[in-house]
Amino acid sequence: MENTNVFKEDNRLTAPKLLDVVCSNNHFAANGWEYEIAKKYLYEVNGKMLELGFYDHYEDKSLAKHIKRVLELPTSYDCPMKCAYCASSWIKQDLKLSADVLFYITNKVLENHNILENDSLLIALTGTGDAFFTLDSILDFINLIIKKYNNFSFTVSSCNWTAEMLNRIEKAANTIEFRNVQATYISHDTKTVFRIIPGLRRIGFNFTYFLKHVRESKNNFWRINYLLLDSVNNSNDSFNEFVNLIEPIKEKLIVRISALNETIASKNSGLRPASLERAVDLRNKIMGIGAHAYLFHSDTNDNMNCGQLMLESSHRNINILNNQAV
């Protein structure tokens, strides 16, 4: 896919325009924190709508102990993976964001939050887009931003890590602090994966690349995001299969068990969240082999969670996507 730079139009610099900021507070089950204060920034870049999330995580609702700050960035306007659960799957255009765009909008948000050069921040490049298609711009952006801010860490994610991509991450880790390098997990059954993530039919899929690399890696920033779906991967057989896959690398990774955040796409695809009880069962099974696992879900649906776009919320019209939604 062409590495399109959406920051330039007719060779003229077109500055992204801030359209709106939406705020929300929510209680979570998460890893080391339970309460989130969130802001979603809606930017227009050359007629395309981008969403950025800025999150403050606290130990609990009292806000007495601040845990971390997170900036979540998109890496493309839509995503060719076309995951059946993700709100961005309905956007038609295929447009990657350049490092320049990411750098510009990141600085604008950081200025708004008075982030200084020595402040700590986690930048999660886990919004719309997948590192399989956008790793070039991701690494270029990170190398730009760490020249200005010296205490940032980063999370990157893909549904399909290849050996070449993982080798690039290992090399980049010599100068970049990765908090997590994440692989999305649905199933080890190829037919099931292709049904939930149709984009993989075109590019292929082999989860064993990731497992093999983690086993041989000296780094410990690896994470699997197990998206728990009712009647897809919440059976005892599915749990046992997954545990068998990760047992050889159980000491080298963390497993995040994520609840499905419902979207128009997930409902149209007939996908439903699995029960909290089954999530606990999976966590206990993973911890039973000595691996680290945690639940990740919000108490209420504020439409600002993973896989969602605030454009789909009830007080907005999805047609704001400039008629680029199906």
Outline the structure in words.
α1 crosses α2 (131-145). Mean pLDDT is 89; it is low at 7-13 and 314-326. A 10-stranded mixed β-barrel has the order 3-4-5-6-7-8-9-10-11-12. A two-stranded antiparallel sheet has the order 1-2. The two termini are 21 Å apart. The chain is an alpha/beta fold and 326 residues long. It has 9 helices and 12 strands.
Record keyword descriptors for this entry.
single chain, 326 residues, TIM Barrel, two-stranded antiparallel sheet, 9 helices, 12 strands, globular, disordered C terminus
Q: What share of residues are in beta strands?
A: 25-35%
Q: Within the CATH hierarchy, at the fold level, what is the topology? A: TIM Barrel
Derived structural class: alpha/beta
CATH domain class: Alpha Beta
The profile of the biggest β sheet is: 10 strands, mixed, barrel
Let me know the number of strands.
12
Cα-atom radius of gyration: 19 Å
CATH homologous superfamily?
A: Aldolase class I
Low-confidence stretches: 7-13, 314-326
Counting structural domains, the number is 1
Tell me the series of helices and strands, N- to C-terminal: EEEEEEHEHEHEHHHEHEHHE
Distance between the termini: 21 Å
Order the strands across the largest sheet as they lie in space: 3-4-5-6-7-8-9-10-11-12
What is the level-2 CATH architecture name? Alpha-Beta Barrel
- Report helical residue fraction: 25-40%
Cα shape: globular
Number of contiguous helices = 9
Rounded mean pLDDT score: 89
